[in-house]
Amino acid sequence: MLYPHARRMIGDMSALACRFRKKQDKIQLNIGIEQDIAAAHLGNLMGRISLVLPEVLVTLDPGCTGDIRLGCENLLCEDELFIPMFDESYVLAFPQNHPIGQVPKLTLEQLHEQPWVMSPEHESHQRFLPLYGASGGIPRANAGNFTLALDLVAAGYGLTIAPASLVEAHCELSSRPLPGHPLMRRVGICYAIQAQLNPTIELLLANLDH
């Protein structure tokens, strides 16, 4: 009576071990995610990876790490290549119902009078100085990245300049184009040349490059 039961137990254990081995044998892909990348951009990338590499075990980690990483073009290291995925503009971010949202045509002079939340350590800071004017020397608050700057704006600390995709994620904030020539940033895949030696990564990069 015990023999059939024992055989079933052995069969179940073998099937479980087989499933475990398959899970362990999955090809792994580690992706670094830089700061200030919108959830919409990350979701777009992950959707494309799922279609191209449905069986790959993906691991996301913050910062400059991984087999490839999702980040801004201006953060490339010297030996890295870049595949552009998203071009987006910087916009003026402010709380909903702020008077500046009702101004018909925004001018630099009007911006110079505003209380600013700045990110002085960010690589984009120098590009924004003409928009700050004299107010650039007396910020209302400082933040280490755009995400934190937008949190401060939502808390009523002033206005800030940030990528449109990040502002759109804050339902309590509004935005409008900046005066003058549009300021842009490009988000995409950063990767080292030797990463292409991995057939899985080579296939993914070829797909993302189209």
UniProtKB/TrEMBL annotation:
Gene Ontology CC entries for this record: protein-DNA complex
Transmembrane segments: none
Highest taxon listed in the record's lineage: Bacteria
Domain LysR substrate-binding: 28-208
InterPro entries tied to this protein: LysR_subst-bd (IPR005119)
CDD domains: PBP2_LTTR_substrate
Listed PANTHER family: HYDROGEN PEROXIDE-INDUCIBLE GENES ACTIVATOR (PTHR30346:SF26), TRANSCRIPTIONAL DUAL REGULATOR HCAR-RELATED (PTHR30346)
Name of the protein: LysR substrate binding domain
Taxonomic lineage of the native organism: Bacteria, Pseudomonadati, Pseudomonadota, Gammaproteobacteria, Enterobacterales
